[in-house]
Amino acid sequence: MTTTNGFSKSENFQSTMSSLNYGHVMERAARDYQKEILEKEDFDEDDLLSRRRRNNTINLNNEEEEMDEDSVQQEMKEKRLEELKNGTTTTLT
User: Fold this and answer.
1) In 3-state terms, what secondary structure has residue 8?
2) How far apart are CA 49 and CA 55, in angstroms?
3) What is the CB neighbour count within 10 angstroms for residue 11?
4) What gap in Å lies between CA 20 and CA 57, rounded to an integer?
5) What's the confidence (pLDDT) of residue 85?
6) For residues 10 and 17, what is the distance between their CA atoms, to the nearest angstrom?
7) Residue 59 confidence (pLDDT)
8) 15 and 7 in contact (C-beta within 8 Å)?
9) Cβ distance 2 to 9 under 8 Å?
10) Distance separating alpha carbons of residues 16 and 4, to the nearest angstrom
11) What phi and psi values does residue 67 have, to the nearest 5 degrees?
12) How far apart are CA 21 and CA 10, in angstroms?
């Protein structure tokens, strides 16, 4: 048997094939991992969209309450401006 660098030709061949096989296995693992990550991102994006839809539905249902709160805030602002004009402001301590 002929030796190269202390190894026989068959040992060199086996080592090369083992390295190539390892490379293919790592490549497949990387592809599988990438596929899992992309699927998870798609799932997270779909989940986010469904949450936004639910929140929009809730906001539409609570629109009257929000309008009431806005009108109360507007009344408070107007009252405060009137107090400032008349000089009858009250201070909180």
Assistant:
1) strand
2) 10
3) 14
4) 56
5) 86
6) 10
7) 55
8) yes
9) yes
10) 13
11) -65, -40
12) 16
pLDDT at 11: 86
Average pLDDT, the chain: 78
Q: Which amino acid is at 63?
A: E
For the chain, domain boundaries: 3-86
Interatomic CA distance for residues 92 and 57, integer angstroms: 39
Residue type, 4: T
Pairwise CA distance, residues 20 & 59, whole Å: 58
Residue carrying the six token digits 């790592």 = 26
CA distance 67 to 62: 9
* CB neighbourhood size of 7 (10 A): 13
Number of H helices, E strands in the chain: 2, 2
Q: Would you place residue 33 in the very low, low, confident or very high pLDDT band (cuts 50, 70, 90)?
A: very high
Amino acid at the residue 85: K
